[in-house]
Amino acid sequence: MPVITCIEDLKRIYRRKTPKMFYDYCESGSYTEQTFRDNVNDFARIRLRQRVARDLSDRTTDTVMLGRTVALPVALAPVGSCGMQAPDGEIKAARAAASFGVPFTLSTMSVCSIEDVAAHSPEPFWFQLYVMRDEEFVDAIIERARRAKCSALVLTLDLQVLGQRHKDLKNGLTTPPRLTLPNLIDMALKPQWSLGMAMTPRRTFRNIVGHAKDVTDVARLTHWANEQFDPKLDWSKVIRIRDQWKGKFILKGIMDPDDARMALDVGADALIVSNHGGRQLDGALSSIRMLPQIVRAVGDRTEVWMDGGIRSGQDILKALALGARGTMIGRSYIYGLGAMGQAGVTRALELMQKELDITMALCGVKNARDISRDNVLVPEDFEGRWA
Predict the structure, then answer these.
(1) Radius of gyration of the chain from Cα atoms?
(2) CA separation for the pair 310, 147 (Å, rounded)
(3) pLDDT tens digits, residue range 170-208?
(4) Are strands 249-254 and 270-273 parallel, antiparallel or unpaired?
(5) Domain 7-373: which CATH class?
(6) Which of 209, 228, 318, 323 counts the most CB atoms within 10 A of its CB?
(7) Is pLDDT at 217 greater than 80 in this prediction?
(8) pLDDT in tens, 51-61
(9) Phi, psi torsion values for 268, nearest 5 degrees
(10) Distance of alpha carbon 245 from its chain centroid, rounded?
């Protein structure tokens, strides 16, 4: 086993072990992928302020997200087809998150169903909802999440229509993959992945198949998924879902201060500054650049978290310094999952925690809750000066 020192090391192993179509699904954005790249690269524009001669004993990365003490200011973001990155991927990620002490979020488009994860996770998890045209399906999946004792509902707002992702189209992405000759050759070169998939019954979108009307096979599932995202999702529907859920309510996909204020008006317990990992509106600003404006717009009236481009503990510190109360990671834990399964997710979290702890110390901070703008140097033009 190679020495793993950073998330990039996990990514290299992940790439070797995972079929191309699912690696590309994870490691891509829409159209030119400008926003996908900026999500990562813009963190490098923020520099750290080194401080010395401080008492650095008894440091802690603990903080609070949505009233829960977490070991690290991180939640695992919802990732569609997570169970194609590794066999039973959602179950493995949920177990790793629970053991480490951070929240896990299950996607509507997961391979393992709500019930699968609830039966195997030692802790309650969050459920992420895509709003579909089929209101009967939406109502039923919210009720299923409630019965599974999910502790929060994460409503994604930025997928009313699908952004075009060129790699997915060129690869003919499906879950499970079609058994074409190129796919069979690729899977044969990934024997550990293929053996694991052969040994699990979880190989399609189990939240949907058998639950959505007339979706009984892969062909009908693909058609349903492509046609069902609701272009009529508006704030009145958000309120309807909030009232139906009645529990902790999180809105994901906020990239504008006006929308952040609307999220306050509908009673969001937390909002997530997110551009869907650069997979929707290519050309949008990175999440980290939009974060300060949104924090100013809502103040301390709700929790603001940030999602997009986080690849290290230093990135977590920078997000907290710019006002986030917590962060979400997607690709960073997927690299670990594809590389080493549940142990890889744990390793990704360990790497980030260690990086955050050491960086806090060198910035003169003992407690993650005390990280502030004083710990970073931000370029004057970081947020942009737009006509």
Answers:
(1) 20
(2) 32
(3) 999 988 898 899 999 999 999 999 999 999 999 999 999
(4) parallel
(5) alpha beta
(6) 318
(7) no
(8) 999 999 999 99
(9) -65, 130
(10) 21
Instruction: Return phi, psi of residue 29, to 5°.
Output: -130, -170
Q: Delimit the domains of the chain by residue range.
A: 7-373
The dihedrals phi and psi of 217, each to the nearest 5 degrees, come to -150, 175
CA distance 66 to 74: 12
- Give the span between the Cα atoms of 23 and 335, in whole angstroms: 9
Q: Decide if 120 is catalytic.
A: no
Mean pLDDT of 341-365: 98
Place of tokens 């053991």: 99
pLDDT at 168 > cutoff 80? yes
Apex CA 200: angle with CA 195 and CA 204, to 5°? Answer: 110
Q: Which two tokens stand for residue 299?
A: 């103040």
